[in-house]
Amino acid sequence: MSGRVALVTGASSGIGFQIARGLARFGAAVTLGTRSEARGQQAVARIRSEVAGAEVEFLIADLSALDQVRSFAANFMERQPVLHVLVNNAGGFFARRRLTVDGQEMTFALNHLSYFLLTRLLLDRLVAGAPARVVNVSSAAHYDGRMRFEDLGHRRGYRFGLAPYAQSKLANVLFTKELARRLSGTGVTANAVHPGLVRTGLSTKNIPWPLRPLVALGVAFMAISEEEGARGPLRLGSSPELEGVSGEYFNLSRRAQSSAASNDLDSARRLWEVSEQLTGLAQTR
Ligand SMILES: NC(=O)c1ccc[n+]([C@@H]2O[C@H](COP(=O)([O-])OP(=O)(O)OC[C@H]3O[C@@H](n4cnc5c(N)ncnc54)[C@H](OP(=O)(O)O)[C@@H]3O)[C@@H](O)[C@H]2O)c1
């Protein structure tokens, strides 16, 4: 991937770090999205120490905040005239309902609105870099998801974060498919992927502490490593075999059937419009 430019969000740890390292190994120039200077420096230093000649840098943003998504995109565009691979990966699970600085429910804002807004803001760069790829890290949790357009922020039925998480991951697939339809003919593809059940901090970070050892134990036994979890997203971002493939859902590295809800065209269009409203893009059109 020498000469290719990639951007990976949530790259300070977990699956995102492994994706960034993998892309750097393939020779791409990689920008890591991180939340803090210290974690960004650490991640970049680790990649440089492991990958000879790695071209890596980091940019900081709390992607749950719309203004920070905008400044993150602007900073990236100042540095790079083109983008070939965008991996939307930063995400979280929140057992207790919380709001972002914009007043949105955290799971929906971070896991879906940040993917939507960042991709839209970087579209010109992707089209300029075509053939280019958008990889949205979703989850098999999307099979349990239902779009609650009447209450996207789950004021009711929060269910310890399970319902909003599943909805946000369904939103990732709906967004991917709608994006792929709208990008048809531009040379930019969009695909969604379930990375597997992966041994990261995702399931334990934001749950009540008495539950943490139990969940950590379950994950330790059942889950795959972070490196294995990065394989599917990496393949989607880099494999020549997948050139031109768009609008698909992958389970790890294999193409798979996503849920019926994720193939609902009305729902995809509605989510697109609502997301434009909620991110302020509708006002700037
Ligand atoms: N782990 C699994 O089993 C699994 C299964 C299916 C799908 N996924 C998906 O995989 C993706 C990555 O998750 P993971 O398992 O690698 O979890 P993780 O280890 O917790 O990593 C999440 C990444 O997102 C970043 N992040 C969190 N909140 C952020 C914010 N407000 N602004 C910017 N960055 C933020 C984190 O930064 P910090 O390092 O600063 O916290 C971290 O780099 C998520 O989209 C998740 O839904 C994971």
Secondary structure layout plus pairing:
Layout lengths: L4 E4 L5 H12 L3 E6 L2 H14 L4 E6 L5 H14 L5 E4 L17 H24 L2 E6 L24 H22 L4 E7 L7 H4 L6 H11 L3 H13 L10 E3 L2 E3 L8 H15 L1 H4 L1
Parallel strand pairs: 1-2, 1-4, 2-3, 4-5, 5-6, 6-7
Antiparallel strand pairs: 7-8
Bound molecules: NADP nicotinamide-adenine-dinucleotide phosphate (NAP).
Q: What would you say this structure looks like, in words?
A:
The chain is an alpha/beta fold and 285 residues long. It has one domain (5-199, 226-284): Rossmann fold (3-Layer(aba) Sandwich). 47% of the residues lie in helices and 14% in strands. The chain contains 10 helices and 8 strands. Strands 3-2-1-4-5-6-7-8 form an 8-stranded mixed beta sheet, with helices on both faces. The longest helix is centred in the middle third of the chain and has 24 residues, at 106-129.
Short characterization:
This protein is of the alpha/beta class and 285 residues long.
Properties at a glance:
Rossmann fold; alpha/beta; globular; 285 residues
Order of helices and strands: EHEHEHEHEHEHHHEEHH
Spatial order of the strands forming the largest sheet: 3-2-1-4-5-6-7-8
> What does the oligomeric state look like here?
single chain
- CATH superfamily, please? NAD(P)-binding Rossmann-like Domain
Helix content: 40-55%
CATH architecture: 3-Layer(aba) Sandwich
Please, how many helices? Answer: 10
What's the structural domain tally? 1
Beta strand %: 5-15%
Overall SS class: alpha/beta
**Termini distance?**
34 Å
Rg, Cα atoms, Å: 17 Å
